Amino acid sequence: MSELTDREFGIVESDLTALRLQAGNLDQKVGNLPAQLSDIAERMDRYQAQLVELLTQLVDRDPNAG
Length: 66
Hints:
Elements: H1 2-60
């Protein structure tokens, strides 16, 4: 019975170690999330400005001009 308990304890300990590693990786990814979101927001602002500029150019263009 002691062998089985030691073996089970080893399995649980190994699973906990794997879980700690996964939690650490997740914590690191979540920690990087604000910077990534900020980058995405900046790119969206640039693209929106480009779209507004292009649309403004189209509206100001004479449709009868060649």
